[in-house]
């Protein structure tokens, strides 16, 4: 910058609102400027001070500190100070030093800056131009990185988010298989709707153990700041509806079942979006309806956007599956019997969808089956065009099938065999023998003489550098094992069970997940099999196998998730000819449930549970082989039926 001296007038580029400054002091390295209009003082480095000298040229007009308006006639520099010879309003000649210029002068307008020679370098104009150009291009993009979720860009999740979030209103079921990220998909949809202003007031109902996980997930990944509501929070608003005090509310179903008043208050609040996680716990039948289902049913009638996160249709069973569809569209799904009868059309519709997706010609037998089915849609000509390889007609016909003769517009289900990218599973069975002196301790897994406990100690020593998840059925078992490992063997453990508060559960999970934590094993009761994700670990120990194959898949699914980078090692100890041995054989040899995701387990268990129970109760291992053979045959038949009749419409 040019030489500066006291009493000269300068203006700041960085803070033009301060007005006209006057230099008080100049040193070799600093400049002190007083801005009397703002009663502020600034000290600048002399080499790069953001200041410009204010100079008026003949013909310019300015005001003085005495509020006189003067027009410049001539400018002279005397001892580094500008002297202006001006004419006042009475056309009399007046000489004014620049120190008498008004302190309140500002040069915010472009022409003011131009006429006072406040000019920036060309590089700043180019920078601003390029910034505005890129900003304009960014505004036209459908994807916004800095305001989107902090998630991996997985195609199946992005497709669902894009498909649902851009609808005017959505009422859908997310029924992905375990580990495919239903919560992430829900967060992507909610985030998009909130950012675009399509959804404001949102109510999310989840099981109590998942409250904090949802709260943290929505905040960290999507910056959605939900308010956690429980009875204590509601009591803070005794004279008003607590559900009207926040826009994004997260709560458990227990809040409503334990207090009918909260149900009425929730129903009285206007919601834009309702989200229900683990919706398969909403029980419905033609003769009995659970209170939780009744509440969601009433909310769904008053809420335009509904999102249900649930198990796959195969796991749900036909009645539970229909119950959830009924929540979304009661006019369409009004009768369970009618819905069951529609199943006979699933296979021809799915076969037709397969041909259309692959651009193939529809065979005559399919046309004959589709013609009466599509009669009301007047698609005879469309069928002819589709068979002549008219791609537009094929797409239109596929949309008609989806809209009128399937559930794909409101049901989204991704399966592992269509997504891919999941890690391998390896099953490690450990046959054990009980010595005579150990027989008395077989019913207590935490006893030091129990064969399972002895095996567990040896295994943990082998896996001392690995993170290990152990899931057992009862909380008492997890607590007893934790005490024994910690107090008797000096092994650092984390324990996670339903008797802990939500905060204590979160602390236990965080303690286990910390790479620096000395705890390399998390002892977890069955509640750890729903909703919690531990894909940073890859070793799973199953000391007691669950009776239900769905529970087994949920246990494995805590590790077998998108994001798992290692082969999952499943460790299964069992006593020879014990109940655990029989279950292991049935799961492994009959269902192949350890090394492959078993989507047919629920149906097979429903058909064969009495036979399996009889073998266990009578302790008849010799009858197990026929049951395994029967299971294999049924599993193959169900998988073929599912593949042919459902997957194309749903996936």
Task: Give the count of helical stretches.
Answer: 25
The level-1 CATH class of the largest domain: Alpha Beta
The largest β sheet comes out as:
7 strands, parallel
Architecture of the largest domain, CATH level 2? 3-Layer(aba) Sandwich
CATH superfamily of the largest domain: P-loop containing nucleotide triphosphate hydrolases
CATH topology description of the largest domain: Rossmann fold
Proportion of beta-strand residues? 15-25%
Number of individual domains: 4
Mean pLDDT across residues = 85
Number of strand segments: 22
Calculate Rg over CA atoms: 36 Å
Topology of helices and strands:
Layout: E1 9-12, E2 20-26, E3 30-35, E4 40-45, E5 51-53, E6 61-63, E7 69-78, E8 81-87, E9 93-97, H1 110-115, H2 122-139, H3 155-165, E10 171-174, H4 182-195, E11 202-206, H5 211-222, E12 227-228, H6 231-235, E13 248-252, H7 254-257, H8 260-268, E14 273-276, H9 291-302, E15 305-309, H10 313-316, H11 318-328, H12 336-342, H13 346-357, H14 364-373, H15 380-387, H16 391-404, E16 411-412, H17 416-419, E17 425-432, H18 451-462, E18 468-471, H19 475-488, E19 493-496, H20 502-513, E20 521-524, E21 539-541, H21 549-557, E22 568-575, H22 579-591, H23 601-618, H24 624-645, H25 647-650
Parallel strand pairs: 10-15, 10-16, 11-13, 11-14, 12-13, 14-15, 17-22, 18-20, 18-21, 19-20, 21-22
Antiparallel strand pairs: 1-2, 1-5, 2-3, 3-4, 6-7, 7-8, 8-9
What does this structure look like?
By secondary structure, the protein is an alpha/beta fold. It has four domains: 8-116, SH3 type barrels (Roll), CATH 2.30.30; 155-329, Rossmann fold (3-Layer(aba) Sandwich); 342-406, no CATH class; 425-645, Rossmann fold (3-Layer(aba) Sandwich), CATH 3.40.50. 41% of the residues lie in helices and 17% in strands. The protein has 25 helices and 22 strands. Strands 12-13-11-14-15-10-16 form a seven-stranded parallel sheet, sandwiched between helices. α3 crosses α4 (182-195), α22 packs antiparallel against α23 (601-618) and α23 runs antiparallel to α24 (624-645). The chain is elongated.
């Amino acid at each position: 910058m040019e030489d500066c001296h006291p009493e000269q007038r300068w203006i700041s580029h960085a803070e033009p609102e301060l007005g006209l400054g006057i230099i008080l002091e100049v040193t070799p390295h600093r400049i002190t400027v007083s801005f009397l209009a703002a009663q502020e003082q600034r000290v600048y480095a002399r080499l790069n001070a953001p200041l410009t000298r204010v100079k008026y040229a003949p013909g310019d007009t300015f005001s003085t500190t005495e509020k006189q308006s003067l027009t410049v006639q001539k400018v002279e520099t005397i001892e580094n100070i500008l002297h202006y010879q001006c004419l006042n309003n009475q056309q009399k000649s007046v000489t004014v030093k620049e120190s008498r210029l008004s302190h309140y002068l500002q040069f915010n307008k472009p022409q003011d800056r131009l006429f006072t020679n406040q000019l920036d370098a060309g590089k700043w104009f180019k920078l601003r131009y390029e910034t505005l150009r890129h900003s304009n291009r960014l505004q036209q993009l459908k994807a916004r990185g800095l305001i989107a979720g902090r998630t991996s860009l997985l195609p199946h999740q992005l497709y669902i988010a894009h498909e649902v979030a851009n609808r005017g209103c959505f009422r859908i079921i997310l029924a992905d298989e375990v580990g495919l990220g239903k919560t992430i998909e829900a967060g992507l949809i909610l985030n998009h709707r909130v950012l675009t202003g399509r959804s404001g007031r949102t109510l999310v109902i989840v099981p109590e153990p998942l409250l904090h996980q949802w709260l943290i997930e929505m905040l960290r990944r999507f910056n959605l700041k939900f308010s956690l509501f429980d009875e204590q929070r509601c009591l803070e608003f005794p004279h008003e509806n607590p559900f009207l005090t926040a826009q994004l509310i997260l709560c458990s179903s227990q809040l409503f079942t334990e207090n009918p008043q909260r149900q009425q208050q929730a129903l009285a609040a206007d919601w834009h979006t309702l989200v229900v996680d683990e919706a398969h716990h909403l029980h419905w039948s033609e003769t009995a309806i659970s209170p939780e289902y009744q509440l969601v049913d009433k909310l769904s009638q008053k809420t335009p956007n509904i999102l249900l996160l649930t198990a796959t249709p195969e796991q749900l069973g036909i009645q539970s599956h229909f119950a959830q569809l009924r929540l979304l569209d009661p006019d369409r799904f009004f009768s369970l019997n009618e819905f069951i009868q529609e199943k006979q059309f699933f296979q021809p519709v799915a076969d037709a969808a397969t041909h259309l997706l692959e651009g193939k010609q529809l065979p005559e037998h399919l046309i004959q089956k589709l013609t009466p089915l599509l009669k009301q849609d007047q698609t005879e000509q469309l069928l002819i065009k589709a068979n002549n390889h008219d791609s537009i007609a094929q797409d239109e016909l596929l949309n008609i099938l989806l809209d009128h003769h399937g559930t794909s517009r409101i049901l989204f289900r991704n399966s592992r065999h269509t997504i891919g990218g999941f890690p391998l599973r390896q099953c490690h069975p450990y046959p054990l023998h009980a010595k005579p002196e150990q027989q008395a301790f077989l019913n207590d897994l935490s006893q030091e003489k129990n064969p399972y406990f002895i095996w567990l100690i040896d295994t943990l020593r082998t896996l001392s550098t690995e993170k290990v998840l152990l899931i057992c059925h009862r909380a008492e078992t997890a607590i007893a094992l934790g005490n024994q490992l910690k107090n008797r063997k000096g092994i650092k453990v984390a324990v996670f069970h339903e008797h802990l508060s939500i905060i204590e559960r979160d602390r236990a999970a965080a303690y286990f997940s910390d790479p620096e934590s000395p705890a390399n094993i998390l002892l977890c009761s069955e509640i750890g099999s729903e909703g919690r994700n531990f894909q940073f670990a890859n070793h799973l120990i199953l000391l007691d196998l669950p009776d239900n194959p769905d529970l087994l898949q949920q246990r494995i699914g805590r590790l077998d998730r998108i994001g798992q980078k290692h082969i999952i090692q499943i460790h299964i100890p069992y006593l020879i000819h014990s109940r655990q041995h029989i279950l292991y054989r049935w799961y492994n040899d009959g269902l192949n449930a350890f090394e492959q995701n078993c989507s047919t387990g629920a149906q097979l268990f429903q058909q064969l549970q009495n036979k399996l129970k009889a073998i266990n109760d009578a302790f008849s291992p010799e009858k197990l082989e026929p049951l395994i053979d029967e299971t294999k045959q049924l599993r193959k038949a169900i998988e073929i039926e599912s593949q042919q009749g459902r997957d194309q419409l749903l996936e």
